[in-house]
From TrEMBL:
InterPro entries in the cross-refs: Glycosyl_Trfase_fam3, Glycosyl_Trfase_fam3_N_dom, Glycosyl_Trfase_fam3_N_dom_sf, Nuc_phospho_transferase, PYNP-like_C_sf, PYNP_C, Pyrmidine_PPas_bac/euk, Pyrmidine_PPase_CS
Keywords: Glycosyltransferase, Metal-binding, Transferase
Taxon lineage: Bacteria, Thermotogati, Thermotogota, Thermotogae, Thermotogales
GO biological process terms, semicolon-separated: pyrimidine nucleobase metabolic process; pyrimidine nucleoside metabolic process
GO molecular function: 1,4-alpha-oligoglucan phosphorylase activity; metal ion binding; thymidine phosphorylase activity
Subunit structure: Homodimer.
Cross-referenced PROSITE patterns: THYMID_PHOSPHORYLASE (PS00647)
Full protein name: Pyrimidine-nucleoside phosphorylase
Top EC group: transferase
EC number: 2.4.2.2
Substrates-to-products reaction catalysed: 2'-deoxyuridine + phosphate = 2-deoxy-alpha-D-ribose 1-phosphate + uracil; thymidine + phosphate = 2-deoxy-alpha-D-ribose 1-phosphate + thymine; uridine + phosphate = alpha-D-ribose 1-phosphate + uracil
Pyrimidine nucleoside phosphorylase C-terminal domain sequence ranges: 341-415
Cofactor(s) listed in the protein's UniProt record: K(+)
Organism per entry: Pseudothermotoga hypogea DSM 11164 = NBRC 106472
Length: 430
C-alpha cells in the first residue's frame, strides 16, 4: 500500500477502504508518512469529502492510535459534555456541578483556547493553584468523590488527532465536517464515557455559521458515537453574540459562580439547564426544569464546585471572594454614539478583541493574561441612549488596547427600532 496511491484515489473523489484509512492514520502517527503527503491527503479530503462510513473509519483509526481511559471502577453511567467552542462559553463550570448534584458521574477532558474562542483549561487556571494535569488515578478519584473532574487532554488519548489537527491548522483544512467530527469524537470515545452531550455552537463566533451546517455536524457525530455503542444527544445553541456578559478567563469564572448562585444571565442559565436535563436523561435520571432550579437554590452545586476547586489544588475562597482572582483594575468604557436598540453584537469581533487584550492566543505558544477581558453591559435587544456604557474593557500593559477598543465598538450595531432578543437554544437532536 502506498500513500501516493491513496492521495490520488481521494483526489479523484473515490471512496477509501477501511484498511487505507488505517494505513494513513497509523503511518502518520508513527512518523512513517511525511507532513507533505499528509497535507496533500487532508486537502484532498477537504475538497472531495468523506462519506459516513469513511468518517467513522477515520474516527476509529484515530481512537486506536492511543490509550483509552478505563472508567470501570466508577459505578453507573459515565457522562461527558463537549462544546464546539465559542465566546463567553463558561457553561462547563455551571453544568457539571449541577448535573453531579443529581448523583451522576461526569468525566471532562478539555483543551486550551486558540484563536477567538476561549479554552476551559485556561479559564480554570485563572484560579490560584488550580491543577489541570492529573494522573489517571487522581482524575478517577476526584470524579468518584465530587461527581466530576476537569483535566487537560493527555498525550496518550487519540495522539493521532493532536498531530493531524496541528497540520490542519497550518494548511487551512480545519473547516471540513468529516475532519471536525472525527477529531472531536475520537477524543470523546477515548475518554471512556458511556454517554455524550454535544453543545454545537452556531453563528458568527462559531465554526458552524448556520443551522444547516451545525445540524449536519451534530448528526454526523451522533451517528459515530451510536455506531460505537454509546448514547448521545446534541444541542444547537446560538453564538451570534457572546454567551453571557463576561468574556475573559477570570471574568468568566466569576459569572459561572453567579450562575451557580442562581443569579446568572438568562441565556447562560437557559443553555445550562437544557444541557443538564439532556445529560441526566441519558443517564436515566428524569428531571424537569423546576427540579434543576430547586437544586441550584439549594446551593448544593455551588458547594460542589468549591470542593472541586479544592480537590484540584485551587483556592476555593475565590467562590466567596472573587477579588482573589487576577482581575485587572485598568478599565476603559465603550459608549454608545446614538440612541436606539442593540441589533447586533458580533461574537467573533468580541472574541478577537479579547485575544488582542492578551486573554487568548493567536499561536499555541502564546501565554495567557487571566486578568483581562470584556464585560458586556448591553446585549441584543437592549435599549441604549447616546453615552450609555455598552461594555467595559479590562486591559493590561501587554494589551493592544486601541485595536481591541475598535473591535468592541464595531461589534455593536444599533438600530432605531426595537429588536427581538434571539433564542439561545435552537434545537435538540437525538
Amino acid at each position: 500500500m502506498r500513500m501516493y496511491d491513496i492521495i490520488k484515489k481521494k483526489r479523484d473523489g473515490e471512496e477509501l477502504t477501511t484498511e487505507e484509512i488505517r494505513f494513513v492514520v497509523h503511518g502518520y502517527t508513527r512518523g512513517e508518512i511525511p507532513d507533505y503527503q499528509m497535507a496533500a491527503f487532508l486537502m484532498a479530503v477537504y475538497f472531495r469529502g468523506m462519506n459516513e462510513r469513511e468518517t467513522y473509519d477515520l474516527t476509529i483509526a484515530m481512537l486506536e492510535s492511543g490509550e483509552r481511559l478505563d472508567l470501570s471502577s466508577l459505578k453507573g453511567v459515565k457522562l461527558d459534555k463537549h462544546s464546539s467552542g465559542g465566546v463567553g462559553d463558561k457553561i462547563t463550570f455551571v453544568v457539571l456541578p449541577i448535573a453531579a448534584s443529581f448523583g451522576v458521574k461526569i468525566i471532562k477532558m478539555s483543551g486550551r483556547g486558540l484563536g477567538h474562542t476561549g479554552g476551559t483549561i485556561d479559564k480554570l487556571e485563572s484560579i490560584p493553584g488550580m491543577k489541570t494535569s492529573l494522573t489517571r488515578d487522581e482524575f478517577i478519584r476526584i470524579v468518584d468523590e465530587i461527581g466530576f473532574a476537569v483535566a487537560s487532554q493527555t498525550e496518550n488519548l487519540a495522539p493521532a488527532d493532536k498531530k493531524i489537527y496541528a497540520l490542519r491548522d497550518a494548511t487551512a483544512t480545519v473547516e471540513n465536517l468529516s475532519l471536525i467530527a472525527s477529531s472531536i469524537v475520537s477524543k470523546k470515545l477515548a475518554a471512556g464515557a458511556d454517554a455524550i452531550v454535544f453543545d454545537v455552537k452556531v453563528g458568527s463566533g462559531a465554526f458552524m455559521k448556520n443551522v444547516d451546517q451545525a445540524r449536519r455536524l451534530a448528526l454526523l457525530m451522533l451517528d459515530i458515537v451510536k455506531r460505537n455503542g454509546r448514547k448521545a444527544r446534541a444541542v444547537l445553541s446560538n453564538m451570534d453574540q457572546p454567551l453571557g456578559r463576561m468574556v475573559g478567563n477570570s471574568l468568566e469564572v466569576i459569572e459561572a459562580v453567579e450562575c451557580l448562585r442562581g443569579e446568572g444571565p438568562e441565556d447562560v442559565m437557559q443553555l445550562s439547564f437544557t444541557l443538564v436535563k439532556e445529560m441526566l436523561d441519558l443517564a436515566g435520571v428524569r428531571v424537569n426544569l423546576n427540579d434543576i432550579e430547586s437544586m441550584v437554590r439549594s446551593h448544593e452545586p455551588l458547594n460542589r464546585f468549591k470542593k472541586f476547586i479544592e480537590r484540584q489544588g485551587g483556592d476555593p475562597s475565590v467562590v466567596d471572594d472573587p477579588s482573589r482572582l487576577p482581575i485587572s483594575r485598568d478599565i476603559v468604557e465603550v459608549r454608545a454614539d446614538r440612541d436606539g436598540y442593540v441589533a447586533r453584537l458580533d461574537a467573533e469581533a468580541i472574541g478577537r478583541a479579547c485575544v488582542l487584550l492578551g486573554g487568548g492566543r493567536s499561536k499555541k505558544e502564546d501565554s495567557i493574561d487571566h486578568s483581562v477581558g470584556i464585560e458586556l453591559l448591553k446585549k441584543v435587544s437592549d435599549h441604549v441612549k447616546a453615552g450609555d456604557v455598552l461594555a467595559k474593557v479590562y486591559h493590561s500593559k501587554r494589551s493592544d488596547l486601541n485595536s481591541a477598543l475598535s473591535l468592541v465598538q464595531s461589534a455593536y450595531v444599533i438600530f432605531e427600532h426595537p429588536v427581538e432578543s434571539p433564542p439561545t437554544v435552537l434545537e435538540v437532536i437525538g
